UniProtKB/TrEMBL annotation:
Pfam families: Lum_binding. It comes from Peptoniphilus koenoeneniae. Residues 1-95, 96-192 form the Lumazine-binding domain. Pathway: Cofactor biosynthesis; riboflavin biosynthesis; riboflavin from 2-hydroxy-3-oxobutyl phosphate and 5-amino-6-(D-ribitylamino)uracil: step 2/2. It catalyses: 2 6,7-dimethyl-8-(1-D-ribityl)lumazine + H(+) = 5-amino-6-(D-ribitylamino)uracil + riboflavin. Transmembrane segments: none annotated. Catalyzes the dismutation of two molecules of 6,7-dimethyl-8-ribityllumazine, resulting in the formation of riboflavin and 5-amino-6-(D-ribitylamino)uracil. Lumazine-binding repeats lie at residues 1-95, 96-192. This is Riboflavin synthase.
Length: 208
């Protein structure tokens, strides 16, 4: 589990395809204080460390993961947001993030305001149904608060600190972005699925 608080921006040193797997090597300094087999969220995608050095780590990525995330667009020299898994005694500063990307969004507008920047993100209806105003969403591994929801898009407002410590400033209008919706909303939907055709009463709610 992750929190969406980026620890470091890493640099992709190489990414190579080997049969149905891709092997990625990322240069980093802070997040390499881990062990083999541990997890690192890379642009919001949970990867398992297969090799490790003082200033780098390597991971294998399945083709399905490449195809369904922005990892398909990265190349040597690309910058990526990195976060180690949350320790059991850690502080949950962001929100609960699994590192499982639900889908891709596209940046349709970037608006510079006085002390923040608004990113307008288009997304599918399947994604948008889990996006709520003032709720949490993960974009490229970053825990963010939704400031507005439209019919086919949503808006997040980014403060200078987040811009400085992540790869957001490198994104432009038209770029794709990984989206992970809040797991709590998806669990609630699953729990209530059998009762969709039934009238929700106090007795039903007490069962939960």
């Amino acid at each position: 589990m992750f929190t969406g608080i980026i620890e470091e921006v890493g640099i992709v040193e190489s990414i190579q395809k080997k049969n149905d797997l891709y092997k990625i090597k990322i240069r980093a300094k802070k997040v390499t204080d881990i062990g083999l087999g541990e997890s690192i969220a890379t642009n919001g995608v949970c990867l398992t460390v297969t090799n490790l050095g003082k200033d780098f780590f390597e991971a294998d990525i399945m083709k399905a993961t490449i195809d369904g995330t922005t990892l398909k667009e990265i190349k040597k020299g690309s910058f990526v947001n990195l976060e180690r898994a949350l320790p059991s005694n850690g502080r949950l500063n962001g929100h609960i993030v699994q590192g499982h990307v639900d889908g891709l969004g596209r940046i349709i507008k970037i608006v510079n305001l006085n002390n923040l920047v608004e990113y307008h993100i288009s997304a599918s209806k399947e994604i948008l149904k889990y996006i709520v105003k003032k709720g949490s969403v993960t974009l490229n591994g970053i825990s963010l608060t939704v400031s507005k929801v439209n019919a086919d898009s949503f808006v997040v407002s980014i403060i200078p600190t987040t811009l400085k410590e992540t790869t957001l400033t490198k994104l432009r209008t038209g770029d794709l972005i990984n989206i992970e919706t809040d797991i709590i909303g998806r669990y609630i939907e699953r729990l209530f699925t059998p009762y969709r055709e039934s009238e929700i009463s106090m007795d039903l709610l007490k069962d939960f």
